[in-house]
């Protein structure tokens, strides 16, 4: 098999565009690269500046280049009897066929393969399949990205990496891959068929320590064999070791391991505060700014406390990201520096783990919705099973339809066969649960923490000591979990999985099995299934009508009220239901009755099936259907709870987006005040809870958090410690905060022409001085869009690119990666960029805050909280809006200085920080940067001067 790896640079997209450069790398049968061919091509039109910016190819480069037909005379002989390969090959193939046609050659008839498919299958955990990033991941020197010969060579080297990986996989895995693609007549199928035949001829197969079970090759063995970290009968390693001796030993080991390690005052204080709280059964609020090293700050005391007292310590984070960072970065370090064996386990929500039974069933039955895409996702997973120890979906880069596919193979309670499952000892979820059971410290997330409380503490191992990281999110998460939140899609999706049409869905699948069995009971059950269909259709139609009618209640939109583009919001109040609500309630009643009928008949039938043995082929279907009927029960109760609108302590509201109309409808019912529930569920029940975050205090006081989280009583009883750690950074030298005092102000979420023009001009000037490397935070998506185009235009001549959240497409992490990789760019972000974004070093030099991050006061939850405060004769603006905004402002400010070497500038364009009576709370809450205000025109010279001072 000889490969020709092709890459074109062109002036535009597939339909219109000319080739300006070609690159071709030939890979011989022995997998050596025998030749790299490259040539510029003269196009019939000038090269657009955008393409020159991307590729570095200018009009002068191609002025004397060969014409298309000259180049093709050289290229065509190289394509004889080869397999054509490209990175996203459809693009290059289209241009090739066009060029062959224009120059009078026959079309290319050979096989075509795409390196993106190979990368997905061979390396399912890569975070991106972009050529530059993949090359650097494999250590391939890719000197001139977006130049055809360099791209072709890099792609050829990437292909060779993939082939090498395929040859190291066990034969069983190759057989499964070959089966997956055999069903469709594709070039990928042809390749895997050939690979399988070649591998079957070999006498020696690669040695591996994999487990082979039921035709799958797995990295994991039986979890029942996992041992606890220490011998149960041995002496406790901390029996006579005080905390300070333990820490001395660890500091010494840290110094040996990390030459740059030095004790930090703030971190040392944190070690002591946390161990005091844990060992004396107190609660602790501790604010630890960036650079404190707070993960170690709570993990080291948690390990000591847990091992010494032989009681688990639970650690909860807000984001899965932080959970993964602890697993990949902090725990491996601790394993090396803690002077005795201990175990820290990660335990996520059940839906993050793969259910091997469902996956086996899906690939054996080829139960695919879109055959080509699903086959590639299944192939990724088959290879991933030979690499993964956790079976956690965060390790996979599924993209596209991957999310839908995952839902059908994820572990869940209702469809779990438990010990009866043939996969039980290999099960990833039970492995994680068992690991959490034997661990000293268990790391979970806020969502799972609340799911556990709602499930009567059935999900997590028992614990008395809890550390909550990113604790400023606790109240929000509590509201979501202690209330209800349901999407239109959840209902239609569940109904669709039960019954899409007479051929698709779990019920039709069961009916097919019953028909082949021929027993009398089977035909009775088939009749029951047939009778369920009309009821299910009634439920679906009623739900669609109800959603449509609820959607029409939403107000027509005049301005961008809540959050992002096209978002509609309506609060429903128990006391004043909208007119015609009876009509909606009648629809809900119809839906409720039909659902009850379906659930009653369905569950009765399933329990009869369970009693009768020998239904083996239907077993897993019966289990999955049981789960779906339980989901229907939950839907029935939730819709009723929402439509009753009768709890005055709950805020009810609807959300939808104008793009997808009633299909995007979401119902929310959230308790107005969760402090009483948090107190009752956590602070009264647990011995000690440590809450930490970079932003817990407002104007150096913790009162806002104490009130909102229900810690008032603990404070009165002397059970609450608070600690504001000093910052490890020298903010006066590292950060300059500038406020242009004559800047125009803004009303609402949209700026007038004068405001936008002044802002664009000022941002452009600042961006030139800081050479891009600037993050601009907006509070409204509409204002971001107002600024995006004019700013892009203003900076185009300076070679500074502008990236806009929601304008560019792509996820937050992709945008951040693009920002970090480009040498000069300005990134515009809204709400989600205010926190959790970590861009250390030179990539970020300037942070611009356009408006103070007040939440829209008309959001239903904010409104209801304000009403509650007013009823208590408190000022909602000072008690709620300002503290919330200060915390977000501090989060935003925290993006700038990430290490002791970082220097940077913050520009606050909102003059309220110096004009209003509450502005001081914002400025006083910051960790002491140098602050100056001046006229707008003096700002850029001052920034230039300050940056130069730092360069000395």
UniProtKB/TrEMBL annotation:
Catalytic activity field: ATP + H2O = ADP + phosphate + H(+)
PANTHER family: DNA REPAIR DEAD HELICASE RAD3/XP-D SUBFAMILY MEMBER, REGULATOR OF TELOMERE ELONGATION HELICASE 1
Cofactor(s) in the UniProt record: [4Fe-4S] cluster
SMART domains registered for this protein in UniProt: DEXDc (SM00487), EXOIII (SM00479), HELICc2 (SM00491)
UniProt protein name: 3'-5' exonuclease DinG
Role of this protein: 3'-5' exonuclease.
Keyword NADP among UniProt keywords: no
Natural source organism: Paenibacillus agri
Domain Helicase C-terminal stretches: 762-951
InterPro entries attached to this UniProt entry: ATP-dep_Helicase_C, DEAD/DEAH_box_helicase_dom, DinG, DinG/Rad3-like, DnaQ, Helic_SF1/SF2_ATP-bd_DinG/Rad3, Helicase_ATP-bd, Helicase_C-like
Binding site for ATP: 288-295
Nuclease recorded as keyword: yes
Residue ranges of domain Helicase ATP-binding in the record: 253-517, 275-538
EC number(s) reported in the record: 3.1.-.-
Keywords from the UniProt entry: ATP-binding, Exonuclease, Helicase, Hydrolase, Nuclease, Nucleotide-binding
One GO MF term: ATP binding
Motif (DEAH box) on chain: 469-472
GO BP: any one term: DNA replication
Enzyme class: hydrolase
Cited PROSITE patterns: HELICASE_ATP_BIND_1, HELICASE_ATP_BIND_2, HELICASE_CTER
SUPFAM superfamilies given in the database record: P-loop containing nucleoside triphosphate hydrolases, Ribonuclease H-like
Family (UniProt): Belongs to the helicase family. DinG subfamily. Type 2 sub-subfamily.
